[in-house]
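Here we describe the complex-level prediction in full. Unlike the single-chain runs in Section 2.1, the four entities below were treated as one system.
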Amino acid sequence: MNTFGNIYRLTTFGESHGPALGGVIDGMPAGIAVDTDFIQSELDRRRPGQGKLTTARNEADRVELLSGVFEGLTTGTPIGFIVRNADHHSADYDSIKDLYRPSHADYTYQMKYGVRDYRGGGRTSARETLCRVVGGAFAKLALRQLGINVEAHVVQVGNHLLTGSPAEREAQMEEIVSRVRAEGDSIGGIIAGVVSHCPVGLGEPVFGKLNAALAGAMMSINAAKGFDLGDGFDGVGQTGSQMNDEFCIDGGQVHTRTNHSGGIQGGISNGEDIRFRVLFKPVPTIMRQQNTIDKDGNEVAFTAKGRHDPCVLTRAVPIVESMAAMVILDYYLLNKTTTI
Amino acid sequence: MNTFGNIYRLTTFGESHGPALGGVIDGMPAGIAVDTDFIQSELDRRRPGQGKLTTARNEADRVELLSGVFEGLTTGTPIGFIVRNADHHSADYDSIKDLYRPSHADYTYQMKYGVRDYRGGGRTSARETLCRVVGGAFAKLALRQLGINVEAHVVQVGNHLLTGSPAEREAQMEEIVSRVRAEGDSIGGIIAGVVSHCPVGLGEPVFGKLNAALAGAMMSINAAKGFDLGDGFDGVGQTGSQMNDEFCIDGGQVHTRTNHSGGIQGGISNGEDIRFRVLFKPVPTIMRQQNTIDKDGNEVAFTAKGRHDPCVLTRAVPIVESMAAMVILDYYLLNKTTTI
Amino acid sequence: MNTFGNIYRLTTFGESHGPALGGVIDGMPAGIAVDTDFIQSELDRRRPGQGKLTTARNEADRVELLSGVFEGLTTGTPIGFIVRNADHHSADYDSIKDLYRPSHADYTYQMKYGVRDYRGGGRTSARETLCRVVGGAFAKLALRQLGINVEAHVVQVGNHLLTGSPAEREAQMEEIVSRVRAEGDSIGGIIAGVVSHCPVGLGEPVFGKLNAALAGAMMSINAAKGFDLGDGFDGVGQTGSQMNDEFCIDGGQVHTRTNHSGGIQGGISNGEDIRFRVLFKPVPTIMRQQNTIDKDGNEVAFTAKGRHDPCVLTRAVPIVESMAAMVILDYYLLNKTTTI
Amino acid sequence: MNTFGNIYRLTTFGESHGPALGGVIDGMPAGIAVDTDFIQSELDRRRPGQGKLTTARNEADRVELLSGVFEGLTTGTPIGFIVRNADHHSADYDSIKDLYRPSHADYTYQMKYGVRDYRGGGRTSARETLCRVVGGAFAKLALRQLGINVEAHVVQVGNHLLTGSPAEREAQMEEIVSRVRAEGDSIGGIIAGVVSHCPVGLGEPVFGKLNAALAGAMMSINAAKGFDLGDGFDGVGQTGSQMNDEFCIDGGQVHTRTNHSGGIQGGISNGEDIRFRVLFKPVPTIMRQQNTIDKDGNEVAFTAKGRHDPCVLTRAVPIVESMAAMVILDYYLLNKTTTI
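The structure predicted for the assembly as a whole is:
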């Protein structure tokens, strides 16, 4: 269950404060040029410490590729990779090792496994997502060659819809997050993703609908609590006559006049932009005292220490893109098996 | 890709106007008493023609069990089943065989497969979901023995939140749907599901989070366009201090004082009610003229014929329950492998 | 675990004395012409009662296709099928319902599941294999279009190597089997399979080697006890210099001068004939008194009743072919995903 | 396809002359004590350079565990590991980079992928198997706690059956291999494996028979060409009355008087010793001149350089054990899902 995908498959491992995180990419098509600078730049996008809004923890997060690439090309064999954990402050976590922090996974992991690496959240740490970004970066390299583009953006922070230019949107976001940080609190929001130039035909009905795969992928990201496609929840008040996407010929190609469907019909891509949204809850670590219990059932008061983002949205953008890129490549490859 | 699940697995087949639909349930635990009346009653819940709100097509939809049950008990071997298609009006569909109906899967299926059974939507028909209900009914039989309950309800039709007693809610719904039908239009809405008395520990991080599995399951249902967990999209404006669920001891048991998380933390059930919502778009078949193109790219006007629900929400309730029941049983079984 | 394959997948169900056996073929490529006479003729090859050597039980074993075929072509949607069980003599089995027959699966099923359908062996009956033959027949239809051929033959009965023309071989076999039947005993032997005109490149190292897939497929057949590839066990005394297959150019094509490897190198087909053998043990049902125990641990003497083949080799031939055909088609489809 | 197993899953990566090999073990039960000395000792058993019979290449082959273990116990999260490649003589391979060595995978990899890492065989090198040994060592740690034992031994070298004490058998083997080495040739043989104290009930009919899983596992090992269970090919001349294993009560337990079946009936373990054999062909690298072609189709003569084992049997023993241990643990865990 630490493997994602059908043909293009990512298997990951690693705890926040162990020696390293890493993974294996299996099913990478052979013969794709490997742009290592691009891969590292994708990792850098999710790294903490880039801007004003993110945590002070600053690790190099250098990915080391161990296999599957030869003379600059993918060979079709699995790509092993690791990212060392360099910047440990494990002692920070001694005070919480017997606590169940509110809305964290401490309690559920302890109950399920009977043992857990409590340091920095262990396997539940958001550091796990850097392996997804490596998997996504390789997928993007293949998609790029196919002309398929995957992009995501923060579109809402708390109740606030971001508007205007990228700079204006970033400014709005910084203002909200700064205020939340000053209050020792945290905030969530919404990221929107778009897959453009996606070929028609990706998606494997019935249970393998492309939207089902995207939903499962996105909801596997830490703190993701919701997903919708096309007009989604915002369109709940519309009727069929308002929502239906009529087909037309445009530029000699089949298109739909509108795209309320979000580029997927009957679980299969129709060639229009695939548009989806992912909801992220506020991170549960806040700089305020909270009440909880310890493993013996005693009530205890608890205040988080250390370095924590009050808002993970910016860093979640490349993760959303990565999951989408892996799904699209996986379903592109699956679709090749539809006919002999 | 017509198989759902890991240990408890449902594989389905069947087109709307073929001889039969059916499936195979694999991984059903041995020794469970099979209540065939219950299974049929679940199918009856999704059957058209039950109330004022649904289509006039009235098929018996009798399920025939072909294997895997002996002297009233499941044997642990696969359960094959079929449901005959009895009430064909295939000629109704001749007029649309070369059309791409707006927001249907005609176009994407044609492009993907090069051939499709256009009669009644073929494989894309909502009749496919009756196989899910059979799979869900068997899952419920096992869950019942474990004391786990799965229930769903329509909570919103279009923009209208249903309120009051079940009878009042049904009345509100009938009124809206009648109005929409009179206009030859269709309407969507939201179904909420609750899994109660779920044990702690179900869910397989990282990619196998219980919420990811539920999201993928729900988004594989026809016309589903969104999913959220716990407070979901409605809680987007809340901060961490408002959203965190503090642990406490209640009745000698670990509980959370609130349940904004929706019963899942770190991808693993925490013993609280699992609460989720599924968004359904309006069905695309409406009784109004629409513009589209045919397979040769000619623009054509098109008006649907035949019998069609203007709102599928009522019939989707047992389907949502079924998908949830299958996920919960599957993850219950998976969780047994956590330790030796 | 009642599903076989990766892309081309067969899921089966059914007990010997239940209402029907059947299955679902998923991943069948779209657009393949469906020759129903061929499919039925394949089933007839494994049917009892064809010749002098097989049991008197004579069922029609008519396959009913329920989906996935439209206007004579596969549609890419799953193909559901059933074969009714018509000729029940369940009462024959009452005397054995509490016994553990020697070298049958009675004991292991009872221990594993706690309940079993003892009639005719239930799920463990060789009747299960007719579903494999349906899956294999569809695979052969696709392979035929690709020019790939799969064939198997009985090459050894007991210690006796069959030689000469087909008629001579059949005569030798009949003589041995008749003698064994007269003694109330049973006999096994070896079936050899050949896949010819297989393209280069099928096989997915490391764990997905084509030979590993073939071995797993063959060893899943009832009564199969051994598998080898190429020269196999017969070549154990040869050295590397004797066994190596040197490459050459023949008719403008790359070939090997010899084919000790059996057409697979490094787990990947090399274009030569894929040659393998499957060992079948004698069927455990014999017409002699045997000692065993009942479910309460009492020692009991036991003599089989009913109709039983003393040798299943002839009927196993289409099953071996079917499993091979499914593996080859599955790996053909997988190989399409090696590159974009 | 670089993943092995259902619940207990090993995913591997790595080329012979890349930076490292490694893998991810997923599904390892939580709470198992990790004996790192044992794991390393298992790796040492397959390492070259241990005795007179194996190659001069002497690498440390130290495994580095990167995750999934905390305070000496498995945590149920995936175990990432790597083994660095320390001893490269890549230049040795320049002369063969455009050749297709007889009975190697050079040709099939080149055709399948269009690109390959030719150095030391790349992904096809037997060095890949050290990842299997790490996976097997962890499985053995869990099995040990369950009282299940897995052992393998070389029983035949070429045509020579080894007899007598371990020391005598080793002496016989050394003599044969020395002679073969002196002739610049190579030799294969047979390894026999035994799983003892295996519980009743492991195995998932129909396609998931325990023997099918073992066969697939063994045939995925480099150079494996055959597999049999119980009496196997040696028993082909026996009749049913000779081969059937009668049940009896022995020491208050159900047993079989004989074990021709090899501990598996109907695909499910019956509690007797699971006995199987694996055939290995002679390694294709020999110190004699061979004829072959290059990638342009030119005929070329070729003589191997470097250090090569004339017989891999001794080093294959821990690999056979590892594959068996992984299968048994996987099916032990699967069997826990048979009932609720």
